[in-house]
Description:
Keywords: Ion transport, Membrane, Transmembrane, Transmembrane helix, Transport, Zinc, Zinc transport. By secondary structure, the protein is mainly α. The protein has helices at 11-16, 28-59, 62-88, 103-132, 140-174, 184-196, 205-233, 242-269, 279-287, 322-336, 357-362; strands at residues 292-304, 307-316, 341-348. The two termini are 30 Å apart.
Amino acid sequence: MEEGMQSYQDPMYFTCRSRRHCHKPLDPSKNVVARRQLLSVTILCLLFMGIEATGGVLANSLALFSDVLHLGSDLINFLVCLSAHWLASKPMTQKMTFGYHRAEILGAFFSVIFIWVVSGVLCYIAADRIVHGHYTQVKPDEMLVTAAMGLLFNIIISSVVRIFAYNLRITSDAQPHSLHHKTESDKEEDKATQKTQQPKKPRNINVRAAFIHVIGDTIQSLGVLLSALVIKFAPSQAYKLADPICTFVFSLVVLITTMAILRDVITVFMEGVPRGIGFASLKKDLEDIDGVVTVHSLHIWALTMDTTAVSVHLVIEHLHQHDEVLAAATRLIQDKHQVHFTTIQVELFRDEMNACEDCLRFNQ
Length: 364
């Protein structure tokens, strides 16, 4: 063990840290920074939507309109995210005992579905233009100027998101775990936590969704710019097919970029184990605690992508080991595996546990 590192088994470790019990305090600064980030992006998005919509009308370009509609879907996504953050900041109630954390997951889900619907409508309009030959009326000069502005805008907005994402990580690392006045014991606790815990990058799903949408829009704006160049400098009217064809390509890009978000949403809805926490690894760490005979009924699930809960039963041989095992397990789960809500049941070993099918199946 490295010098200065406190073990989860060290009595002094869980003696000075036993004041924290069933939950690890959530860092409110994460959501504050996320809200600022989303609000800034929302204002920029709304501003450029008007500019690009005007350019789309002047250029008679479906590709530009598709970019406007995707910006509109992103705007709705940002607004849903902001609303979800506001709901998630509300305290728990007797009816909503975990609070409203999953409001942001619902927001991400509906924004993805809306984007898919918009993409389907745009593909239908693009197909109609190809069939009826309406693509020949595109004005390349207006399209080129607007597409260049769109690319510049998306580069700016993606930079804003990256800066705020960096600040989100820095703020998370710098924030204390408690809001009360720090005593010497508190400082010892924070120092021990920093040495033992593994750093975990904050993953707010709505901020991540916003960033993925912006990256998709940047790729789309680049495609619109390239198609505008093709239409302007190509000698044949047939090359103006690039406008509706870009719409199909962009819709595919949007579908691909939103699949990762949908996968995370499904993981949360199905109460699956979130990425970053290994079931086998956590189980082995718990089994390695002095005094633990066996581990069963281990459940790991995500309340959101950055808020996790764990419940587990730990079996011990002697009653006097109860407090030490409970303290060590709590610290290990919260600090090493970065779990926010823990429910640990410590129970004495009984012979019938060897015949319990559920326990035997769990330990296979």
